[in-house]
Each structure stands twice: as C-alpha cells, then as structure tokens.
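Example 3.2
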Amino acid sequence: MSNIVCKQLVKTFQQGEQTIYGLDNVSLTIQQGEMTVLSGPSGSGKTTLLNAIGGLDEPDSGSIHVGDIEITGLAKSKRADIRLHRIGFVFQAYNLIPVLTVQENVEFVMQLQGVSVTERKRRSQEIIEEVGLTGLEKRRPAQLSGGQQQRVAVARAIASKPVLILADEPTANLDSKTSAQLLELFTQLNRQHDITFLIATHDAQVFDYCRRHIHMVDGKIVTDSAG
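Structure, written as tokens:
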C-alpha cells in the first residue's frame, strides 16, 4: 500500500522579524486511493503541505513517508527521482512546455524515465484518448483552451504511472462547466487506476468530488472529516 504518512511537520518562514508557520505540527495519513480536498484561506499552509509531500520543499522537522519511502532528509536528486516515478503534479498555471505538442508534453516524463520510443508513443496515445484529447495530439499549448491545457497537464501527470497526484488549485482558471469535467476526469482516474488525489483549492465545487475534506488555518489542520 502506498499510503502517505506525515508526522509532526513544521515549516517556518521569516517575515522581517516575525516567524510565520507554514506548517505547525501537522500530522495526517492519506490512504492509497483516497480523494482528499485540502481547503483554507490564503496563507493557511495548503501549498506548503503539497510542496512538502511532493518533495519540492523540505520541512524544518517531522517526517513524510510516500509508501515505504521516507522522503524527508533525502538529497534533492533522490527526491527528484521519487517525483519522477511516484508523484504527478497538476498546477493552476498548467506548466506545459510551450514549444512541445500535446503528445510531446505527455511523452516528456516517460522520456525522462527512459521508456522506449515505441512504448512512449503507445502509452501517450492511450492516455490522450483517456483524457478526451484525441485529434489534438499535434497542437501546441497556445492552440488549446484552458480546459484542454489542463487535461494535457493531467495526461502528463499520469504518464509516469504515479501512486499520488498533487493538484494545486487545478480549477482556478476554468469556468464551472470545464471544472466539473476536470473533476469527473479525476474521479475516473481515481477509480480506474487507484491513484491517490490530494487537491488544494478554494473552489467549493471540488468538495462534492472528494470523500475527505481537510481544512487548514495558520499552518494547522483544524478539521478533518469524511463526507
């Protein structure tokens, strides 16, 4: 089981002479296959927690296990390797490579993994079909709508066969109909591939798609409930 286990995470930032807690003794366990929404006001610690779990940033203290691997204390290169093979990311700003086509963006992670050209082509085509982008393989990001770009970002995120997808405000730049379509896609991927989703958001629409709702304020988890 690739559960996510965080124990007593602390992360502070200096703001002038003031110490701000991004994470204030945060502990939680996310079971494999859960869809969890992380809410809270700006500055509550949502993105800080996602970045810590994703190995993009190191907490000052505490531990994080992704499955049987403790990522805290690992060298940057080791954390990068875990991200490459076990964790997918979906960002508010899509973060696609503008000079690459849809198919090339989806293949990029597999290329880094050393997957053969033939297998990359086969899997990317399969994934593009799964996320509803068939026929758009040769387009570049600037030729796509916001919703289509976010679907490419999701396709790229699942191309590495991750156990966990971290999504930071994935619906923020989308209208309500496109947001609903994206969340339906998340649900489909969760059910079919048993991928764990942790979604940080201000968007109340996301709550309807997640069984578990964690609310943060000032770096602390104040409520943690299953819907």
